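Much of our argument rests on the idea that a fold can be written as discrete symbols. Part of our work consisted of pairing the sequence of a single chain with a tokenised description of its backbone. We regard such an encoding as a compact summary of how the chain folds. The amino acid sequence and the backbone structure tokens for this protein are reproduced below.
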Amino acid sequence: MTIGEKYIPTQDKVVWYSDDGTMLYGWQNIDGKVHYFDKITGKMSMGQKNIDGHWYLFDSKGVMQQGFQNIGYQNKTVYYNKDGWMLYGWQNIDGKVYYFDKVTGKMTVGQKNIGGHWYLFDSKGAMQRGFQNIGYQNKTVYYNKDGWMLYGWQNIDGKVYYFDKVTGKMATGQKNIGGHWYLFNSKGVMQRGFQYISYQNKTVYYNKNGWMLYGHQLINGKKYYFNTITGAKE
């Protein structure tokens, strides 16, 4: 009497016989590992298989897989939950947020527009937040707590920033926005007060709104004059 795993070459299938010699079918827990055997033929499942509307993955020994798995020939990484189901869409896994294609289950990496918002996922698929440098696009952008790339004027941790309304690129240096000149430091923070622009060899003044001022100005009880074209203090 045959017990355990058996390969039947004439039918090109691996089956399993229980201790009483009967062939097993359907879901089976064998030595703490989960297997699936065809309900008609008893053939042990290997590779990807759709069972009752869910995609599963079984290794070369027929063991059901869980967690992150790379499907090399489809060039995708997917995720199977504790029940072995492939997951889709937004998922929170071990405290990190991931997005899996709603059709293929492929884990997203890099930049992706989802529902009209741009997101960034690292090389391991985790959604990013906060300031991020996109090297190949030569820009620093910002993603809020929901992972959305932000645009335009933003107050972040009590500091004011400006992000391009099309690309999301964080402004640094001098920038004319809405007809006013602003100054942003190397970290993108909008500047106020007296500022020295070294490469233009001039001192200028930005008010509480960040606007460069021109002409006669009364600042802290003192009178100043700023060139009406360049804004340079004279």
Remarks:
- The domain at 1-64 is CATH 2.10.270.10 (left handed beta-beta-3-solenoid).
- The chain has no helices and 22 strands.
